[in-house]
Amino acid sequence: MFHSVRAQLTLWYCGVLAVILIAFSGISYVLIASQIRESTDESLADTSHEFTAAFSDRAAEESARDVFLDFRYSDREILVLSPAGEVIARSRTRALPSETMSTLRTMARLRGFFTIPGGEDEDGLRAFATPLTVLGKPYSAIVIRSLHEQTDRLENAARALFLGIPLALLIASVGGYLLARKSLAPVLEMSRKAQQIGADTLSERIIVRNEKDELGILAGTLNGLLSRLQDAFDSQRRFMADASHELRTPLSIMQGEADVTLARPHRTEDEYRSSLDIIQQAAKRLTRIVQNLFLLARSDAGSYPIDRSRFYLDEVVDSCLTSLRTIASSRDIEISFDKRTEVVMTGDEDLIHRMVLNLVENALKYSTAGGRVSVRLETDGSSNVITVSDTGPGIPLEEQDRIFDRFYRLDRARGAQRAAGYGGAGAGLGLPIARWIAEIHSGSVRLASSGAEGSTFIVALPVSHSS
Ligand code: ADP
Questions:
Q1: Does residue 336 register a pLDDT over 50?
Q2: What does the pLDDT read at residue 236?
Q3: How far is the CA of 89 from the centre of ligand 1 (A)?
Q4: How many angstroms separate the alpha carbon of residue 430 from the centre of ligand 1?
Q5: Atom 8 (ligand 1) nearest CA
Q6: Tens of pLDDT along 386-411?
Q7: Cα–Cα distance between 402 and 392 in angstroms, integer?
Q8: Residue range 13-36, pLDDT digits in tens
Q9: Measured from the CA of 429, which atom of ligand 1 is nearest?
Q10: Contact predicate 161/21, CB 8 Å
Q11: Which of 217, 59, 223, 43 is nearest to 133 (CA)?
């Protein structure tokens, strides 16, 4: 029951309020009590003062009676005691108990205020004794007042506090609970909504009532999280759909070829060879796609092991071009390397090799016979720049933004046809992989220009990474 934040808030709130109320009431009670006592004493002293002033210039016993005619109070009594301690006059006729009288006699000699316990109503008496010199003799005047009224007032004050504190706490706890419930209701609503949101309903959002308050900020943050999750889910789904689509093509080629070949018995060796050749090509393509997918999946998970070492960048570019020279000359495409500098860099040599290979392969793949692929390596102070240019058909302006997207291939039929001499079209993963490799080396790769005269891709790798 006390696990809810509402109940805990209310408990804390009431606990703190109870401490404050009790401390405040305690102090108030002490102050009220001392004020009530002081006012009792003051009124006794005043009465005593007025009485002695009226009394002192007359002869003791005779004038006492006259003076008493003026000093008749319902709540106090005045006694005049002779020097011997005898009561010679009193404002009331009612006799006081003998113990009270003997205490009064003792106190009369001491003077001042004193309290006598007991008395008619068990609340005790408060008395003030003052000297009264009449015709040279030391008399005493004692004003006595029952403490009944004072006790009553104190009891009333205590009762008010004893009833007031629990009542205030009750009202505060009910009010606090309702307030906490009202303030926290949006949190419950948010969690209910969040519970309803699953992988299929990621497009739903938590309602933001007031985006400026804390709960609104929380709801906004959760909605931001949902948007990011939705984007990630969507791209995963796209990735899966595109990947399976790309894998299906070579697989169906292999299966179709095997089915056709096996459908008729006793084929010639040439027929078997040509079928196996087709199956081998499809298997190679499948292997390449799976390797690329695996690399991208590991790069997304941040688990691709980067093997850093120091190497000559110009040698890596050179070896890429050397590996492609045979295929280039078979397609009547000229490859040139303009090495303007020797560059030592630190990074993953295999990945850099793969990045350069992807770009140069594309340049070769999409160029026609008689074309030229030029690669240049230079340093511009802050970066080592590799420029790959070709004399291919170029990439239409409206497609240029998307060529770095995964699985994006423009004009698939045309691409496949152009790339046919190169072992088939790719799966649209070459450029995204090149970009990822450049980025993990704190660099970049971009399409600098593309048109009817060809395309130019530029890779920039920061020199700080290269030293
Ligand atoms: P692919 O493996 O299909 O080549 P990429 O990601 O490397 O995939 O390239 C994406 C698309 O960009 C290619 O399908 C191709 O249409 C286009 N492209 C890439 N490089 C060039 C280039 N040098 N010339 C013309 N088109 C290119």
A1: yes
A2: 84
A3: 128
A4: 7
A5: 428
A6: 999 999 999 999 899 999 998 888 76
A7: 18
A8: 999 999 999 999 999 999 999 999
A9: 6
A10: no
A11: 59
Backbone angles phi, psi at 210, to 5 degrees: -135, 105
Ligand 1 atom at minimal distance to the Cα of residue 425: 3
Nearest CA to ligand 1 atom 14: 409
- Tokens at 339, concatenated: 């090495």
Separation between Cα atoms, residue 262 and residue 257, nearest integer Å: 9
- Residue with the smallest CA separation from ligand 1 atom 11 is 409
For residue 410, the CA-to-ligand 1 centroid distance in Å is: 7
Predicted TM-score (pTM) of the model is 0.61
Q: How many angstroms separate the CA atoms of 233 and 201, rounded?
A: 11
Secondary structure class of 348 (helix, strand, coil): strand
Residues with C-beta less than 6 Å from any ligand 1 atom: 358, 362-363, 366, 390, 392, 395, 403, 408-410, 415, 425-431, 455
* Residue with CA closest to ligand 1 atom 19: 362
Q: Which of 146, 51, 150 is nearest to 96 (CA)?
A: 146
Query: Which pLDDT tens digit goes with each residue over 82-126?
Result: 888 788 777 776 667 777 777 878 877 778 898 888 766 678 889
- Note whether 359 and 434 are within 8 A (CB): yes
Are 455 and 390 in contact, with CB atoms under 8 Å apart? Answer: yes
